[in-house]
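DATA SHEET
Item: assembly model
Revision: 1
Owner: S.N.
Input lines:
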Amino acid sequence: MDADRASRTAVLVCQGRAAAHGRIAERRFADPVAMALLRDDERVTVRRVRAGVPPKGWGERVEFEMVRASAEVIVPRTVAIDDAVRARPLPQLVIMGAGLDDRAWRMPELATVDVFEIDHPASQRDKRSRIGDLRPLAKSVRFVPVDFTRDRLDTALASAGHRHEEVTAWIWEGVVAYLSRAEVAATVQAVSSRSAVGSRLIVNYQAPALSAAFGRMAARAMTATIRRRSLWADEPRRSSWTPAAMSELLAGSGFGLNRDDDLLTLAQALSIPVRQRRSLQSGRVAIADR
Ligand SMILES: C[S@@+](CC[C@H](N)C(=O)[O-])C[C@H]1O[C@@H](n2cnc3c(N)ncnc32)[C@H](O)[C@@H]1O
């Protein structure tokens, strides 16, 4: 990531959640906070997707399709992760690469939980300016700037008051793909060093898929036609993992796999009408316990 520029993919997934709220899988998914985290210009496309009316202009249409696709992919991912957090209530929650994650402001189940939000410093600065005076539902929220490619996650967490002798739930959503395999492995090691027995690690990652790479190429070509810089030029994908490789990585750090589902299966269980079959097929959520 660019050292000074906040993540744009974090905005896209937040737009997806705002667009999906009350529109997709309403009984299982709700994110009434996402819209509040967006800037005025970012809300325009969200409103169009919510209304289900594609704009006429090519530039607006490209943005519309990206937010619409994001909404479809984000719902099963969010529901699976929320369920995994609720199923094992723990006193600490570390959200790694938090972006515009709003669980600390959205989930009443976190009322007794200390939340640590880890993110790239530029993205975290941007988020803090968006949060404004929104009050968290979590017991506490601490912002801990960490660049996974340069900084030590374990020492940053220790300085922020994370208690390694107590159990922790960890969420790592939409981040692994942007890190190299070595960076992913080093981060899992750091997580392990601060995970008491009973801790839970929830990882969203990408399985290798040629079709997903073609999809990104198409999206890049579309954004080029509207003279916008592609999201994936600033935030290139660096690693994908087979389920077996992810399971091995987690096991090597003392986390036993509890389940590992692809997003398509999760979306079908929620009866979501599927357009983004390929993206859903390659995205996965693994839940591992110590
Ligand atoms: C697609 S967004 C996902 C945000 C959030 N987890 C969600 O799902 O809404 C990717 C996130 O990864 C973070 N990220 C990417 N590379 C990073 C790095 N080297 N160090 C720390 N965070 C990083 C970005 O700042 C951004 O918040």
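QC remark: The chain has a mean pLDDT of 94.
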